[in-house]
Amino acid sequence: MTSRYKPELLKFMSYKDGVEYNSDHAFTMEELLAITPEHVCHWMNELAYGSPVPSDDMRPVHRRDATLEFSKKAISSFMPRINASWDPVTAHGNPTRSDAVNKLIKRVKKFEVRREGVEPKARRSLEFDEFLNSLSLVRSKWGKGETAYMVSSVLTLQWHIMARIDDMMKLQFANFVPNRQYPSTLLCQMRWSKNIHEERDAPEQIVLGSMDPKMCALLNLAVYIETSTNVSNSEFIYGHPKDGNRVVRRFLGDIITNTAFKNMKTGKLGTHSFRKGAATYASRCGMSKDFVNRRGRWRTRKGVVDVYIDNTQPYPDACTAAALAGPLGPCFYVRKHGIDCVSPTLLVDQIAPTIKQVMGEAVATTLAMPLLWAAIEPSDNYTYELIPDRLKQKIIGAYVNSGGSESLNPIDRIVQQTLIVEELLLVAAQEEKVLAESLLLFTRSMQPYSV
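^ Tyr recombinase domain-containing protein, sequence as received from the core. Prediction below:
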């Protein structure tokens, strides 16, 4: 953290002393103790207004309050009395923890709210219809290279687990494990996000199927792995993190600027819009702020109980995951009774051999089910391609050779709330004492739609 904050301290001290300090310069205790709130305010005014003492008619058109907050945090980290508030009588303490500095930042923020400050550069939240539109545009590029398959998987999984794009690129095959309690789902654990510092911050989280194939994270992940030629050459699912990051950002940029993409709101869009959009959509579906926080892995206040219990919270996580599966609802992919030709060998060795190689037999069995369903499902039922034709013909050939018939889909999709979510609601009502109103709100928001 010091390496991140040191350049900001050097800029501030160079401005205060009128001397250009080198990057390896070490400030003495006396130099740091000589800093006052006035020095900090002059520096921040210079950043925001372009003048150390701005007039009343000047506006902070150069820097946002977030930049000032970062500067405050950076300078504060080097203060000898870092935890002591500034005492104006004794002139002792941390100068960044003073009324003058805090009021300055609040004033800049007020101008921003009034749209009299710097135009925000933050990407806005993606609307749900925009999300579906982007998925359709990505699918329209299927068959024109492997990149489209990767982007489909990245975007659907990013939405489903509310992840940052940087975190998505660091996903490894080892981060996915089978869910023994619900075999048609997977468990994913993300350990490297910037706000994960303790074991409790990285719970195992459920990955559900979706009744909407475009949104199904399981189906899109399986398609990507089985259509990729070099996926087994890396421990990372989407290739080298830096390369994958650039590819996805460039591809998404082309999608957003496409004339077929319909903007529903003003504001800039980017990869982070998907994380914001997922959180907003889950909230609109009736999920509480706490549930969204847990699914998105935002840090919460530590309590003693966190030390003693499992950090996985199945009820809020599954509820939010179910909402993120879309209005058609989440689903299980299950084998129909009486169809013996769908054996474990068929699933892992012929339908999902690449997945078996990189993720193991148990995960391959789970991901092979949506692949088999999509391959046998009549194409007339959807206006878009469920899986690439080459992969479809391979799966159909393996299924027919094992004794199956193309006229009968051996896989059923069962709306999942009748199986997993209702069970979790019961557990929650007993153990977490969830209010009846909350249960009713969730049940109504997750009513299944016909397809």
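The domain at 128-445 is CATH 1.10.443.10 (hpI Integrase; Chain A).
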